[in-house]
Structures are given as C-alpha cells and as structure tokens.
Amino acid sequence: MLAVEACGLAKRYGGGLGRAPQDALRGIDLAVPRGAAFGLVGPNGAGKTTFVKALLGVLRPSAGEVRLLGGSPEDPRVRARVGYLPERLALAPSWTPLEILESVARIKGLRPGRAALLALLEDVGVAEAANRRTRGFSKGMRQRVGLAVALLGEPELLVLDEPTDGLDPLGRVHVRGLLARALARGATVLLNSHLLAETERICGRIGIVVGGRIVREGPLEGLAPPPASWRVRFEPGADEAALAAAGFTRPGGDGIHRFGGADAAALNAALDRARAAGALLAELAPEGTDLEAVLAEAVRA
Amino acid sequence: MIPTLAIARDLLREARARRWTVALLAGVTLLLLLAAFGLKLEVVDGALAASRFLGRSVHGDIRAADVALRPLFEAVAYLVFYGGTLLGVVACADFAPALLAPGRIEHLLALPVRRSELVLGTFLGVELLVFAGALYGGLGLTLIVAAKTGVVGFAPALAALLGAVAFSGVYAVMVAVTMAVRSAALSAVAGAVIWVLGIVAGNRAALAPLFEPGLARTVFLLLTAPLPRLSALALHAPRLANGLPLEGRELAIQAGGTALFAAAALALALAAFERKDF
C-alpha cells in the first residue's frame, strides 16, 4: 500500500508576454510506502516545496497524477487524513494556539476536547502559551504551533516542509522524537528539509531533487558510494611511525588519521598492524557516505 | 460542522480582533448612546408634544407620534442602507486578501475544505458581519425610539436586510478582484466603484435621458443593465417608514437581480481561485 504516488508530475510557470516558461517540476515519479519516512533534499530552487504543494493540491500540476493514501488529494476525506506544515506558516496573530487547534479540528471534523488539545500543545512544547495570542510569538514557537496543527488527529500522512526551521537544537531533538512516535504508530512521514543531518536521522529513504527532477531515490546506504576513505582516531600515545607503517596517514594536526580505500579486509589488516604496535582504536567512521556527500555528488552530476 | 460555516465562523471570530471592526462597533454604539441620552421625546396621548436633541428644541408642533417620527425612521433607513454598505466596503476589504496571505492559504488548502467552500465561507462570514452591524445600528435606534415614544418602526430593520442584499453584490465583486490581485486597497476601490455604479444603475431610467438618443444612450443602458440596482433597493425601507405599502414585485426583482449579480461575480471569483497556484 502506498501513501504517496506521483506519476509524471510536472509544473510549468509563466510564459507569454515575451517571457520564457519555467519548469519547476519536470516529470517526477515517486512512490512512498505507508509507514515509511521519506526525505526530500536538494539545493535551493530545486523544486522541493513546489513538489510538496503539488502533492497536496495547493498548486495545480501542469501534467501528471498524484494519489495520496490511495485517493485524490482534492478529496476532503483524503485531506482529513493528512497533516501538513507549510514552509512559512502564517498564524492568525489575534488567535491563541488553542483557538487555532479548535478551528482546524472543526474543519477536520474532529472533536478532540480541550484536554486533548492541551496535551498536544504540551507535546510540541507550547502548553504554557496555549491561551496567549500568537502575535509576538518567536519563530520557534510559531513553528511548534504549526507542528501541533499538523499532528492534530494523528494523521496517517504527515507532510512537513522544513519542520525544524527556527527551532533550537533541543527543539530539533524534540521534533525528531515526535516524528519517531508518529512513525511508531504507523504514520507515513514526508519530510522536506535542507537540514541534511536531520533528514538522514529521521528518514529511511531519501529523494534528491535537482532541477525539478528526482535524480536519485532510495535508502541512504543504497545511494551512497562505497567509502573512499576511513576516518580513524587512536587513543593518544600511539606510535606515529608504526601507524604510518601500517598505512594510516595524518593529513591535519587534529589527531585524526585516515585510511584510504573501500576494502574492509585491507582496513582490518592495517588496524591489526597498528594494534600490534600498541595503538588503541577509539573511533572509526567511513568518509564520503553521508547525505551531504551524496547530495553534493548528485548535484555535480 | 459544514466547512463553509466553519470558515464563516472563523472569519467572524477574526473580525472581533480587528481594529476596524472594533472601531465601527464603537462608533455605532456611540451614536446609539448619543440618541439614547441626547434625544428627548415627549409623547402625550399618542402625540409627539415636543422633541429635543442635546437640549435644543427640534420640533414644537403637536402631531401624532407615528407620523412625526416618519422622517426620523426614513433618515435612519437611508443611513443604515448606505452607511452600512459603504462602511462594509471599507471594513471588510481586507478579509479576502488575508485569506490568500502566503503561509495561510497553503495551510487552508491542505485542510479538508474545498476551494469553493473557502470562498463561500469568507463571503458568508462578511455578509453576516455587515448584516449584524447594520441590524445593530438600525434595531438599536428603533428600540431607543420605541422606548421613548412607544412607536415601533420596522424600516431600519428592513434597511439592514436590504443593505445586506445590496452588499452581497458589492462584496462579490471585491472577492473577484482579490482573486486576480491580492490587495486590500484594490478590493476597497472595486467595492466603492461598484457601490457608486449601483446607485447609478438604480437611477438608470432617470439618467438615460441625459445621454443623446442613439449610441450613447444605448451604451449607457447596456453597461448599467447587469449592475445591481442599489439605489432602487434603498428606496423600499424609507417607503415603509412613510407608511407606504411595500412594492413586493419590484423588491423581489431588484433583490433577485442583485443576488444574481452577486452569484455571477462569485462564480468568476471561484473560477479564478480554482486555477490559482499558491
């Protein structure tokens, strides 16, 4: 069962009056299974937000088809099962978070009760401001209210456009926890974020959008090339000459060594030689396999 | 709750916090208080013996109270109709543009509400707001006069109702303009223009002879034909105030025409909204 299906989704803007038309989306195909966490990444202007809006019917695609939770995104019954946080959510300044949630609950046909709404605001960390007008809220607080709106009614599909924008590091950790809970109850999460580390931590599958197309898609480990080198840290006091002889280089003065090549057997042999010389391994990590490297490589290509 | 009603309800809730709405409500209340405390009417055996406003004698003749109060109800009926619709144009110009504000409309469009329901909910909310405002002023004054004289006039209430009908045509145009260009100022200008044209259209039979027979007059009549006859609608409440019977057929035609005009303008607005990207 798929939560999101996009087939040949295209969006062309403008044209006429001597201006050339602009293709924001150039035929995107995507299938996100239910219960998955899917991350969209890409450079600015790649079409990520346009794609999200086209999925939800906020803008009309020029071509292609979209299905959400097996139905049309135009169907209010389908939309009632979707929670959305737009990139720049504008809250009514004269309303309180509680009033905003009550309004959305009415439109969604929910009757959550005041206690449940307060619990939701507690979850996102704005319970103390539940009855304060949102005028004067910080960006982070507004974002938290937006998250509460998206999470209201435990939607089956969460579409979040830059959900941690404006949040402090602790707030980001908090949001990751909320999303993990949503995933645990079986919800699907579609995350659009320019924070690659965050996307990497939350999402099992990644789609890289470049120039209005998804140029790569799949689990991160499948997208990443084999490590070009290994980052190695030994406990202080190791014999540098022995480490060099074992095949480790130390390009900087930061105490970090590197071992070139993707061959695990060669790496283990080098580590054995280093240990035999008395070095103690403290940290080992592959280099060039994180999302940042994958994205950079995809954009270059 | 039906989404259209939920949107209308939210609009009314939002209106409560708006300075314009609060200022208008305060202004009308101030006028009512002025009338309540400043107007002194002495009624003896059903006749108005004397009337004073803020201590100054307004009328000294002894006349039947209901007859003597006709000019007052007539003036109130005009005030409620024209004042209500014009103030509605100014006070409500920002509602539709606010609906389309970036960051808000994306969120609304992702909720289980159709685009048509968003537009209709906004339209309904504004209509209710203007009707309630006009009714508050008109009925308030009616009650004050009734308490002072025992004479009850329904003209102000009818004027409020007709004002809401007239405003439907005006506001529908304002919504349609907003769908083309999201600007409160432009919306207000469009409302004011249609308000003036509606007054012209209501007097088109009287104004037509001012144009040379032939092309000019035909063009004038053609251009004013689809417009709502606001000034003609405005005449019914003062007629009632003057003890004249309501011209039901005329009233139905004019109100129906205005409603049809509003429906056409709203249909245009909806068509534009359906195609719009955010």
Describe this structure in words.
The complex is a heterodimer of chains A (301) and B (278). The mean pLDDT of chain A is 90. By secondary structure, chain A is an alpha/beta fold. Chain A has helices at residues 48-56, 76-79, 97-108, 113-124, 139-151, 169-184, 196-202, 220-223, 240-246, 264-276, 291-300, and strands at residues 2-13, 22-33, 37-41, 63-68, 82-85, 157-161, 188-192, 205-210, 213-219, 229-234, 256-260, 281-287. Chain A starts with a strand and ends with a helix. Chain B has 278 residues and is α+β, with helices and mostly antiparallel strands. Chain B has one domain. In chain B, strands 1, 2, 3 and 4 form a four-stranded antiparallel beta sheet that branches. In chain B, helix 4 packs parallel to helix 8 (155-180) and helix 4 (70-91) runs antiparallel to helix 9.
Element layout with pairings:
The complex is a heterodimer of chains A (301) and B (278).
Chain A: E1 2-13, E2 22-33, E3 37-41, H1 48-56, E4 63-68, H2 76-79, E5 82-85, H3 97-108, H4 113-124, H5 139-151, E6 157-161, H6 169-184, E7 188-192, H7 196-202, E8 205-210, E9 213-219, H8 220-223, E10 229-234, H9 240-246, E11 256-260, H10 264-276, E12 281-287, H11 291-300
Parallel strand pairs in A: 3-7, 3-8, 5-6, 6-7
Antiparallel strand pairs in A: 1-2, 1-4, 8-9, 10-11, 10-12
Helix pairs in contact in A: 3-4, 4-5, 9-10
Chain B: H1 3-16, H2 19-38, E1 39-44, E2 47-53, E3 56-59, E4 63-64, H3 65-68, H4 70-91, H5 95-99, H6 105-109, H7 115-149, H8 155-180, H9 184-202, H10 204-207, H11 215-224, H12 230-234, H13 236-241, H14 248-275
Antiparallel strand pairs in B: 1-2, 2-3, 2-4
Helix pairs in contact in B: 1-7, 2-7, 4-7, 4-8, 4-9, 7-8, 7-14, 8-9, 8-14
